[in-house]
Amino acid sequence: MIIIGESLNATRKAVRAAVIDHDVDFVQALAKEQVACGANMLDVNAAVAGRKEVEDLPWLVQVVQEVVDVPLVLDSADPDALIAAIKVHRGRPMVNSISAESDKIEKLVPVVSRADCSVIVLCMDDGGIPIDVEGRLKAGRAAIEPLLKAGKKKEDLFVDPLVMAISVDANAARTTLEVIRSLGEGEFAGVNITGGLSNISFGMPGRSLLNRVFMTMAINMGLNSCITDVRDQALMSTIYASLSLFEQSACRDYIKKFRQGLLVV
What is the pLDDT of residue 228? Predict the structure, then answer.
């Protein structure tokens, strides 16, 4: 399970202010906190309206990597910002993200094909996010195929089935889980599966409980990566417990974290 910390994102008010002010202390403290909580990678997003993301994203990458030794997920739709960030990134980054939207394919496939990186692939196309399983698989296929033709390998791809809120669509959880299961089979076998699972509980009470239950179900269906708030100790405990039921090494990790007092039980 590759756990990606989601919090260094300029859509968050405090992070946006830190990007604008180039607040190194705030950024580095948040990066270290997430890694201490168990993040294997950190998502970094520096997109602020009216600013030059091509300058801010490389700055953010360098500031974060001064204090943590984990690869970063470069979260941007700007090809120039991605190219600049990849150049300064130490190690192998992940690009977030490409979809089957025609402009994304045209602009971003050439960028990731030239770089030694992994890629998050969204199951959406020019029509938006399909509401049914087949539609999402079709959109995922339309994004995966040009990436494979451009030289990326299946293990480089982290497919995001796109989690929708159950408060809006009562079938949202069932649809996403079926997409996850299908991505582990047939033509898609070999890709990784990731996603921001906390979307499932948007607009609902007791969000943390819903997130934990849904995470367990998704792991059972084949999820092997997630983008989440790693500072939610109860959620992280649920991830470790769920994984321990499937893998001996994860079971040992669970015991270790229990003895360290890191689990909510």
Answer: 95
